[in-house]
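User: Sequence in, structure out. Go.
Assistant: Echoing your sequence, followed by the structure tokens.
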Amino acid sequence: MTVIASEAAGAEIPREYPRRAAVISWIFFDWAAQPYFTLITTFVFAPYFAGFVAPDPAQGQALWGFATAAAGLMIALLSPVLGAIADASGRRKPWIAGFGTLLVIGASLMWFGKPGDASVIAPLLLAYAVASVGVEFATVFNNAMMPTLVPPEKMGRLSGTGWATGYIGGILSLILVLGFLAASPDTGRTLFGLAPLFGLDPISHQGDRITGPLTGIWFIIFVLPMFLLTPDYPAKRPIREAMREGLSGLKRTLGELPKQKSVATFLLANMIYTDGLVSLFAFGGIYAAGTFGWHTIQIGSFGILLAIAGTFGAWLGGKLDDKLGSKRVIAGSLLILLFALGAILLVDKDSILFVKVAPPVPGGPLFSGAAERAYLVLGCLIGAAGGPLQAASRTLLIRLAPEDRIAQYFGLFALTGKVTSFIGPLLIGAITAITASQKAGMALLVVFFVAGLALLARVREDS
């Protein structure tokens, strides 16, 4: 059982830490939430929306970008406020439950996104925005539980293990969809050569659409151990009093932030490079669908390989975080992302780095083209770097922020991760729409990673 130091003693510092089962149960939140990012935003539903619901892939990428931007703006505006209120009230789990409900409802409604039906586009994008708000806010309050679970010297491993576990959950959910649920419209068979379970119709892409309800059910099942076994912060104040004190505390924190140069600089760096990373993950599958003509099975198989790379990257990054420091892990991850993104922009269906290669054989084996295989390798590099970048970022924040205001700072962390998150998708959407070129839209992301790296260099990890 966790014992929290009293308020009079200062920060909420755990004197004892909970049993292993409580920590493992907390880690399973990442497992529970990851299929939303794997199945919905990256590898299955987003490419399906762009390729089969929207009028064409370029318009689909633009519309998806605009919806992502709208959700990101709402998350940015409300995260610090809700984090401050949660710090004042003490509890985290009620917030996770409430926003988890939004995730389940929004994701489940995606089942109604039938192909070629223009009337479902607006409701579908609204459901996507609601689910995105739900999963992001739930994550804010889940992250804020970390300081009570392990000692500071084990924080990197906890964060990295959480991300790695999430990736494994994403892999398994993707295998479930590709192997048993989503079939090719041409063959009527799944990746494993089976007829889809439950009689799902390949022609109307029911295997793609089922990812929404599956994501909701998956979250409900696997988030339960955290609610049952992981101790929450103790309740401190009624919600109305907590709202007054939380908003007052947020105002004080924002006033102090300019004096805390390392924290402020890190939050600014996080704002920029997270925007780039989220945009890269959000549009990576869509970009592959437009460049190579990939459908669900190809994109999903790519996603499995990328997630496997991400699992090992996050696990190794967690160990390096405790050994070398969070800042170095973040910087190394950004350099890898810059290299991989630059190389991807020089890969086309029939060329690699301006060298002509044989295009994929129509109806041939999976990833038969040399350019496709190059894209796979570069995508795995992105996956291997993306996990450590995100895991080390939340660890660095914990090491920089005051412990008695951790949810508030995670609110600011979410703010900086989202306040400009609408800019990346918006600019990608706008540039893609104006130029009718997916490559032109994706090229913008280089600027985000370079700027984030430059600002990170000014952060003092020991501050």
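User: And one key feature?
Assistant: The mean pLDDT is 82.
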